[in-house]
Every structure is written in structure tokens, then in C-alpha cells.
Amino acid sequence: MSTPQSVRLEDCCSLQAGPSAPSPRALATDGSGVPMLRPQNIGERTLINDPLVGVPDATAKALDRYRLRAGDVLCVRTGRPGKSAAVTERQTGWLYSGSLFRIRPGAAVDPSYLVHYLASPAVDRWLHQYIRRGAGIPSLTLRDLSGLPIPLPSLDEQREAVRVLVAIDEKIAVHRRIAETAVELRAVLAARLFAEPGR
């Protein structure tokens, strides 16, 4: 990969903080309304659709500017600032809470590349300088996130970087499953080999 130019996040993406959250009592947990994603729905570079809350249709109509579309990237604002995941076709039209930022990549940015970059140690160190801890809750401002420097190689190079990282992630997942299976097997064998004390 050639040495990429570095730009600020706001120069290659549009950023928007989520809306003020409706009263918790106004949110539905029975699957009705328009789904709203919250920090607990941001996993390890992926979205978790459970648990979900719904915004009543009447309230959601006033929040159209906060509708998501495939390729958007959601970034945690409070709690675990910087944790992020890309929106898929499944979440198109959903809403996101005020505890998240929406990053909409421009034409020069691959969403998956951005998610992997946001999860990198370099970004973690950079964010550490700006995270505020008022009232004990870590948080990040939109202004600070907007200034995040991002190396921007060509789209082909971005996608190749993602391909390599995803392949490594898959290998890590396989080895974790092997390790978990080995731990379970050891526990079963130990139980058979060693009688419980006093028996």
C-alpha cells in the first residue's frame, strides 16, 4: 500500500449526533414502532439487533433527518466512545439515539475501512486525548471526532486492507472456538478422571 494522504474525518464524511432521546416510557420493547439503535447495539465492528427499542410512528415522523441508510457508520458517543459499526440494508430507515454519532462516508471512503480504522490502536490513542469524563461517564464531542485524522488511500487499497483484516478476524474466531472447545473438553475429562472429594 502506498503512503496515503491524511485528511480530517469531517473532510471526507458528514457527521451528525443523534437526537434527544424520547422518554424511556415512550419507547416500545414489543417490536412496534421504528427501531432505534443505542450504544448497547454496537458490538465488535458489527451491529447487534437485540435488544431493540422502538420509537412510536408519530414521534419518528419528526426524526426523519436521523434515519439511517446502508453504509452509514455509527460511533458511540458516551460510555465507550469510539466503538463503531456499519449500518447494513437491514437497518435502513432505522433511527439512532443521542448517545451515538452517525458518520456518513463520502465517495472516497469505504465504510468497512472506516470501521476497521476506528477500531485501531492508533485511533484509540488519539481519542484518549479528547475523551471527557464528566460525572464519571466517558464522552466524546462531535467537534473533536470531526478533527480525527484518517489516512485515505485509494478505494481499491482500502478494500484490500479490509479483506486482509477480515481474513485475520475469521482465523481468530476459529482459534477462539477451538480454545473454547478444548476448555470444555478438559472440564469433562477432569470430572471423569478425578472423583469429587468425600466420595
Structure summarized in a few sentences:
The protein is α+β, with helices and mostly antiparallel strands.
Which properties best describe this structure?
single chain; 199 residues; alpha+beta; 4-stranded antiparallel beta sheet; 3-stranded mixed beta sheet; 6 helices; 34% helix; 18% strand; globular
The run of helices and strands is EHEEEHEEEEHHHEH
Backbone structural class: alpha+beta
Low-confidence stretches: none
**With helices defined by DSSP (H or I, 4 residues minimum), what is the helix count?**
6
Our Rg estimate from Cα atoms comes to 21 Å
The fraction of residues assigned to DSSP E strands is 15-25%
Termini separation comes to: 64 Å
Shape: globular
Biggest sheet, spatial arrangement of strands: 2-8-5-6
The share of residues in helices is: 25-40%
Number of strands: 9
> How much is the average pLDDT?
87
Major sheet size, sense and barrel closure = 4 strands, antiparallel
